[in-house]
Design a protein that fits this description.
It comes from Micromonospora haikouensis. The chain is an alpha/beta fold. The protein has a single domain, classed as TIM Barrel (Alpha-Beta Barrel), CATH 3.20.20. It is 36% helix and 14% strand. The protein has an eight-stranded parallel beta barrel, surrounded by five helices. It has a two-stranded antiparallel sheet with strand order 1-2. Helix 1 packs parallel to helix 11, helix 2 runs parallel beside helix 3 and helix 5 runs parallel beside helix 6. The longest helix has 15 residues. The protein starts with a strand and ends in an 18-residue tail after the last helix. The relative contact order is 0.15.
């Protein structure tokens, strides 16, 4: 495993981190989830990403139990706050009330005294940014989180949040966006702003919801049991990639992966790690062998000719519009 600094901070994270968005507490049984966490630890992954909303808070509980007994100082545990976690009007968003209640709930479920990174899961247009950042400052100053991050914020939102974080003397060090060969909306604005301000990207869906694995074939129904057939596993997220044009071009990447001595998932993960602003790529798994395969992308260097060949294939199907980075217009 290779390690990178999270933005300009002193925190080192594993190049590949383990996330449990649509697996723990939902798609797979707890024994399988625990086996995947054990596999992650065995392969050198030390960074684990979750959120209070995943599986209706169950994902944090599963991860907490799976990591119990590990040396806490040897792990980097990340979680998030924003999406609804209860039926009440204030069980959502980035109000002071919700942040304070959510951090306590997350720590209880994760069975830890602190998280290394506490992230705003989206930007809250219904709450003054000053209120949100002041609440995050209290979370950090109370020792419940070491660093603050955001997820899917625009460049302007990141800049405004960073300014307040500096005033409040708290470390805003990261952004967690979707990023892959097919989804590059952060490259034009978010990445340059983050580089300027010292934030690193912790990217999710580097395999484009599994599409870049090559298992989805043009003109054929999705494989039985795949993410595309399971509403609980993010079928709505993957749908936009399941066109014949996208799937045909993804198949054309297979010879390039073979040329590089990589599996298709390894090529996809290695590709996002070529971006120097990416601190870590999040992978999920329903089976331990997937973890063992994905982690082989760590430390891989793709040469310039290979990167050009990849671009030549996927360029017509790449989404680059910065406007695709957006949060709900009002509190969900």
């Amino acid at each position: 495993m290779e390690f990178r600094h999270l933005g300009h901070s002193g925190l080192l994270v594993s190049e590949i981190s383990y996330g449990n968005w649509i697996t723990h507490g939902s798609q797979v049984e707890e024994d399988a989830a625990t086996a995947c966490v054990r596999a992650a630890l065995e392969t050198g992954i030390t960074t684990f990403d979750t959120a209070d909303v995943y599986a209706g808070t169950k994902a944090e509980e599963v991860l907490g139990r799976a990591l119990k007994g590990e040396r806490r100082e040897g792990l980097e545990i990340f979680t998030k706050v924003f999406w609804p976690t209860g039926p009440g009007r204030n069980d959502r968003g980035l109000s002071r009330k919700h942040i304070m209640e959510s951090i306590n709930g997350s720590l209880r479920r994760l069975q830890t005294d602190y998280v290394d990174l506490y992230q705003a899961h989206r930007y809250d247009h219904s709450t003054p940014l000053e209120e949100t950042m002041e609440a995050f400052a209290d979370v950090v100053h109370s020792g419940k989180a070491h660093y603050i991050g955001v997820s899917e914020w625009t460049a302007d939102e990141i800049r405004a949040g960073h300014r307040l974080a500096r005033e409040l003397r708290i470390p805003l060090v990261s952004n967690q966006p979707q990023y892959s060969m097919l989804w590059r909306v952060i490259e034009a604005e978010v990445v340059p702003t983050s580089e300027e301000l010292g934030l690193g990207q912790i990217v999710w869906s580097p395999i484009a919801q599994g599409v870049l694995s090559g298992k989805y074939l043009p003109g054929q129904p999705p494989p039985a049991g795949s993410r595309a057939t399971d509403e609980k596993s993010g079928a709505n997220f993957i749908a936009r990639f399941l066109t014949d044009e996208v799937l045909t071009r993804v198949q054309e990447l297979k010879p390039l992966a073979e040329q590089a001595g990589l599996s298709m998932p390894q090529l996809a993960i290695a590709w996002v790690l070529q971006n120097p602003n990416v601190s870590s790529a999040i992978v999920g798994a329903s089976r331990p062998e997937q973890v063992h395969d994905n982690v082989k992308a760590a430390g891989v260097k793709l040469d310039a000719d290979l990167l050009k060949a990849i671009d030549a294939i996927v360029d017509p199907i790449v989404e680059r519009d910065p406007g695709k980075t957006q949060s709900p217009a009002q509190r969900p």
